[in-house]
């Protein structure tokens, strides 16, 4: 009987990664949101999913395409997203040996449209028996252990791959929220453009992401780090390499970091006065993969004069929060739709 009823799932359908949490068990899947496909006429046939597909980025032969079906937090390619979610759900259900379809809670960005809402539900409805949505900011706040059930303000900033979700939460209600289409992917793009403009070096998405993870930073204290970057010279067309510093990469991504900080400032300015006092003591919680950028917490703290803390496991904050709701629905009535 336990196998019949206790296999419900929480899903963080992220631009960069998809995570799944099984009720009573924890995180059972963490894979890049990427699919490699080949075309059979007008139809797309999947070749690889997740980490296996990510290895193919920029390295595929003719006729093979590597697709990110989720862009800026929402489904951009419905057909491929359906393939990916179907595969990941199958993997999760195989591990748990579930005999019935699970109920599912999916984390979504704040302010998604009805069309985007419907696309997410329809992409997994065949694999599930009930689908509920929870705003990623609320899920991240619960995952970070913020006192969302109490009448005290908490400010959560979830810096994802495609979007940054910001919310002021009090007593299980979102007092103010906004979602900006800036995140880790925008930083990668900024690095690619910088290398092209300043060094006439063409690099791919995978290299840009590696640069960001290795020496990317938002605070001058990390400027001295260096790494070798390899790509194709736009002047000679031949392979080329050069050494870049953390300071140079900080300059490249600063526009994105400043945009995120400006959005947080906007949230603070729109917080009711009674709750602003709470935020002086509770501060700002950072979650999402972007929270791992070196010095981001210090930069935001210095710019806004508010204390900033990074979640213990920023990448898993959303799915763990949705998982807590799944494990114990009673205290979180009303947070799902």
What keywords describe this structure?
Nucleotidyltransferase, domain 5; 337 residues; 5-stranded mixed sheet; alpha+beta; 11 helices; 18 strands; Actin, Chain A, domain 4
Brief description of this entry?
With 337 residues, the protein is of the alpha+beta class.
How does this structure look, described?
The chain has 337 residues and is of the alpha+beta class. It has three domains: 2-138 and 318-332, 2-Layer Sandwich (Nucleotidyltransferase, domain 5); 139-182 and 258-315, 2-Layer Sandwich (Nucleotidyltransferase, domain 5); 184-252, Alpha-Beta Complex (Actin, Chain A, domain 4), CATH 3.90.640.10. The protein is built from eleven helices and 18 strands. The protein has helices at 2-5, 51-54, 78-96, 114-124, 136-143, 184-199, 205-215, 246-269, 273-282, 296-304, 317-327; strands at residues 9-13, 17-22, 26-32, 35-40, 43-49, 64-67, 70-71, 74-75, 103-108, 130-135, 154-159, 164-170, 173-180, 201-202, 226-233, 239-245, 284-287, 308-310. The strands form five sheets. Strands 3-2-1-9-10 form a five-stranded mixed beta sheet, with helices on both faces. Strands 13-12-11-17-18 form a five-stranded mixed beta sheet, with helices on both faces. Strands 5-4-6 form a three-stranded antiparallel beta sheet. The two termini are 28 Å apart. The relative contact order is 0.15.
Walk me through the topology.
Elements: H1 2-5, E1 9-13, E2 17-22, E3 26-32, E4 35-40, E5 43-49, H2 51-54, E6 64-67, E7 70-71, E8 74-75, H3 78-96, E9 103-108, H4 114-124, E10 130-135, H5 136-143, E11 154-159, E12 164-170, E13 173-180, H6 184-199, E14 201-202, H7 205-215, E15 226-233, E16 239-245, H8 246-269, H9 273-282, E17 284-287, H10 296-304, E18 308-310, H11 317-327
Helix pairs in contact: 3-4, 5-11, 6-7, 6-8
């Amino acid at each position: 009987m336990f196998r019949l009823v206790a296999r419900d799932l929480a899903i963080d359908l992220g631009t960069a990664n998809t995570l799944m949490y099984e009720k009573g068990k924890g995180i059972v899947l963490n894979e890049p949101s990427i699919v490699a496909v080949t075309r059979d006429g007008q139809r797309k046939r999947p070749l690889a999913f997740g980490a296996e597909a990510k290895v193919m980025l920029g390295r595929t032969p003719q006729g093979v395409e590597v697709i990110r079906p989720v862009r800026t937090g929402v489904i951009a390619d419905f057909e491929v997203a359906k393939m990916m979610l179907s595969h990941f759900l199958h993997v999760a259900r195989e591990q748990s040996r579930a005999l019935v379809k699970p109920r599912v809670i999916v984390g979504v960005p704040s302010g998604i449209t009805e069309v985007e809402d419907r696309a997410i539900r329809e992409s997994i409805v065949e694999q599930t028996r009930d689908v509920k949505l929870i705003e990623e900011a609320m899920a991240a706040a619960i995952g970070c252990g913020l006192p969302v059930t109490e009448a005290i303000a908490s400010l959560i900033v979830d810096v994802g791959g495609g979007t940054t979700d910001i919310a002021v939460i009090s007593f299980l209600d979102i007092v103010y929220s906004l979602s900006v289409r800036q995140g880790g992917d925008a930083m990668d793009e900024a690095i690619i453009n910088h290398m092209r403009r300043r060094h006439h070096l063409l690099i791919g998405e995978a290299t840009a992401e590696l640069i960001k993870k290795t020496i990317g930073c938002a605070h001058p204290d990390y400027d001295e780090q260096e790494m070798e970057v390899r790509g194709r010279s736009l002047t000679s067309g031949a392979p080329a390499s050069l050494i870049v510093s953390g300071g140079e990469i900080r300059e490249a991504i600063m526009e994105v970091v400043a945009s995120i900080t400006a959005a947080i400032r906007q949230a603070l300015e729109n917080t009711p006065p009674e709750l602003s006092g709470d935020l002086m003591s509770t501060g700002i919680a950072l979650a999402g993969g972007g929270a791992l950028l070196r010095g981001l917490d210090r930069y935001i703290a210095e710019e806004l004069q508010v204390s900033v803390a990074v979640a213990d496991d920023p990448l898993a904050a959303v799915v763990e929060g949705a998982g807590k709701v799944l494990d114990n629905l009673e205290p979180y009535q009303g947070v799902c739709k």
